[in-house]
Amino acid sequence: MFDDDHSDTENNNRPTTTKQSRTFLWSVPRSASTTFLKSISRTQDGIFWHEPLTQVIKFGTTKSSRRLASKEQKNGTGIPKPIKSLGKETSGGGFLFDANKVSLAWLKCKLESTPHKGKQIVFVKELIDGIIDPDGLEDYLEWIPDGYRHTFLIRHPYRVCASFVKLYKETKSKKSQTDLKQQIPGRLQCYSKMSNLLEYIKENHDRKPIIVDTDDLLLNPVGLMQAYCKDISIPYTSSLLHWDAGDEIMKTKWFVAKQVIRSHQTSKMYTSTFTSTGFEKPSGLPRRSDLPSELLPLIDRQMPFYEQLYEQSIKCYFFTPLSD
């Protein structure tokens, strides 16, 4: 599964020329990003990562300490460990890893190397609020791997807020409800974070990243997926638009932390993704009056960032369906 031969990388771990399509998808929370990953995972000959940075930052050996992470890299402990010590391969070619055993340095090295022989696609789905501190006091931008195309998935703040409220109401555990209620204000700051990340990516990784709005995708999945696939150099087929309900693809085909699997089993976080069979058209935009009044000032402060991001997003007003 993982080849620890680094002969294809330069001394600074930046990949040399490769025919692989390598893409990051940075998403705001509650934006159907896991559904997006489920769609992309329908392509053949790919490696599909589900939020590795987010999980390693949250649970990994270096946790939130940049000082410890930098020391780890300097001491050389970021060299990949034997993969068997971190998790196990799954039946569909994926990998279930333990985020408690993974470091930021290890992950960066692994994502920059070229171990996936015979694979044409490496796709990494991430959450924006997992990598940038809401107050800007500490971030993890230095751990973003080189050699990737960068794309962004956004969604209207009203929809994100309404989705969190729905998730809160559906959560049965009182402790989980309390934790979620405390998290929502910070997670709604995702648009200013994404704006900061976008500028950083343009300056350091990808001069022309692309942005997709979830509602535009749901209203025109053919046109948006055609444009997106063309931009990241992967083949578009109609199979990206339809899939079987269920979570089998997460458990068998994705590179995913066991902590994510556990969360999926105990919460309603991914219910809509794994009951879906395709991209579903959105309902009307939630009314402002239906949102929690205490969150409206925060939403209003974030709205200009969303609008600036949306102005830069892909627009596909017309499309011609392609045959496979």
Question: Would you write up a description of this structure?
Answer:
It is a single chain. The chain is an alpha/beta fold. The chain contains 13 helices and eight strands. It has an eight-stranded mixed sheet, sandwiched between helices. Residues 1-17 and 64-68 have low confidence and may be disordered.
How is the main sheet built?
Answer: 8 strands, mixed
Strand content: 5-15%
Strand line-up of the largest beta sheet? 3-4-8-2-5-1-6-7
Q: In angstroms, what separates the terminal alpha carbons?
A: 29 Å
Q: Could you tell me the radius of gyration in angstroms?
A: 19 Å
Give the averaged pLDDT, no decimals. 82
Brief account:
The protein has 13 helices and 8 strands. With 324 residues, it is α/β, with parallel strands linked by helices. The model is unreliable at 1-17 and 64-68 (pLDDT under 50).
List strands and helices in order, with pairings.
Elements: E1 21-27, H1 33-40, E2 46-50, H2 52-59, H3 66-74, E3 87-89, E4 95-97, H4 104-112, E5 121-127, E6 149-154, H5 157-170, H6 174-187, H7 190-204, E7 210-213, H8 214-219, H9 221-232, H10 248-252, E8 254-257, H11 258-266, H12 271-275, H13 296-311
Parallel strand pairs: 1-5, 1-6, 2-5, 2-8, 4-8, 6-7
Antiparallel strand pairs: 3-4
Helix pairs in contact: 5-6, 7-13
